[in-house]
Amino acid sequence: MESSPVAASAGRFLLVACRGGAEAELVRRQEAVLPQIRKAAWRRGVVTFRLDPPGQPPFDPPADFFPDLVFGRACIHSLGQVTGHDDAARVAAAIAVAGTGPWQAVHVWPRDPACAAPLEEIRDRLVAAVGLASASGLAAPGDQVLDCVIDSPERWWVGWHRAATPPSRWPGGIYPGTLAPTAVSRAWLKLDEAVATFELRLERGQRAVELGAAPGGASQRLLEAGLDVVGIDPALVDPVVAAHPRFTQWRKRARDVKLREFRGFDWLVCDMNIDPVSTMESLGRIATAPGVRLMGIIATLKLPEWSRAAALPEWLDAFRAWGFRPQARQLSTGGREVCVVARPSKP
Ligand SMILES: C[S@@+](CC[C@H](N)C(=O)[O-])C[C@H]1O[C@@H](n2cnc3c(N)ncnc32)[C@H](O)[C@@H]1O
Fold first, then answer.
1. Average pLDDT across the chain, whole number
2. What is the pLDDT at residue 134?
3. How many domains does the chain have?
4. What is the Å distance from ligand 1's center to 275 Cα?
């Protein structure tokens, strides 16, 4: 059980950040995996949940609950909101609410990524106010993190969480990595975030096949990790990737590749811009094919509308039926989609 580093009575609300537009799907997911709490309020990019709804016994969520929320990027125990006539006054108000700790890290992040507040400056002030020597924005596992969520430049929410999973060590759950200047597409960064989020061990000499590989950013990231890669896509892959000695393209649709050709791959990566039901069909066909022994699947399921995520439990069950343990997350560098990483149930 988590306990608040400040008043035991404080923080009976959870504040969960998500991509703008995903709020309803976040609540749907919460109702399925954490029905003990109840939605209290929402604004674009943030939903708050009451931890002890009327008529229900007080509930302390387990420390590791938030990965199951899929659409929840960051999850903090709320301590209250602060206002003030300038940043110095708001920092003083935040410290009055949160106390000086002990805090091991300070995360300052905006509800709306377009917010113009000086995040670094606010963080430096808070770091100094709680007497932290290190100014690193990233938390270490186990750190007690003071969160300051910038709702608007004039109004902040203060809260806390315990760092555990990789995204919980990043302010607001936003991946801190940046797109490599040589990357041929943003999918490079998406795969980079998936690797960091799910702590995937991609190793030199492993073989990956990617469905929907063009123009090639994700394949490029796999090649950089030392893998041999086959990219399947009717569209052309960028010449930089196509020329790589460990890359081969099969210029076809996924369903036109014979099942026996998928033997010998360790990783099945998939990022096709097609309906998620068709993506699931392709994945199932390959994952269950005779002679195919995968170490893992890294799949993007596109959501033509957010509401299509209602089928997520069904899709995750399908992965289980194929003999895999799936985990899902709406990556911070991805669009309206869910990343599913699945490892074999029996190693
Ligand atoms: C979002 S892009 C993939 C980006 C890519 N992963 C990268 O790293 O740059 C989607 C790709 O899926 C491909 N695609 C769509 N349907 C496909 C199918 N049935 N089989 C293989 N590729 C398909 C499209 O041609 C397109 O290049």
1. 93
2. 67
3. 2
4. 12
